[in-house]
Amino acid sequence: KDRVFNTPLCEQGIVGFGIGIAVTGATAIAEIQFADYIFPAFDQIVNEAAKYRYRSGDLFNCGSLTIRSPWGCVGHGALYHSQSPEAFFAHCPGIKVVVPRSPFQAKGLLLSCIEDKNPCIFFEPKILYRAAVEQVPIEPYNIPLSQAEVIREGSDVTLVAWGTQVHVIREVAAMAQEKLGVSCEVIDLRTILPWDVDTVCKSVIKTGRLLVSHEAPLTGGFASEISSTVQEECFLNLEAPISRVCGYDTPFPHIFEPFYIPDKWKCYDALRKMINY
Amino acid sequence: MLTAAVSRVLSGVTQKPASRVLVASCKYSNNATFEIKKCDLYRLEEGPPVTTVLTREDGLKYYKMMQTIRRMELKADQLYKQKFIRGFCHLCDGQEACCVGLEAGINPTDHVITSYRAHGLCYTRGLTVRSILSELTGRRGGCAKGKGGSMHMYAKNFYGGNGIVGAQGPLGAGIALACKYKGNNEVCLTLYGDGAANQGQISEAYNMAALWNLPCIFICENNRYGMGTSVERAAASTDYYKRGNFIPGLRVDGMDILCVREATKFAADYCRSGKGPMLMELLTYRYHGHSMSDPGISYRTREEIQSVRSKSDPIMLLKDKMVNNKLASVEELKEIDAEVRKEIDDAAQFAMTDPEPPLEELGHHIYSSNPPFDIRGANQWIKFQSIS
Question: Which EC class, in a word (chain A) (predicted)?
Answer without folding.
Answer: oxidoreductase
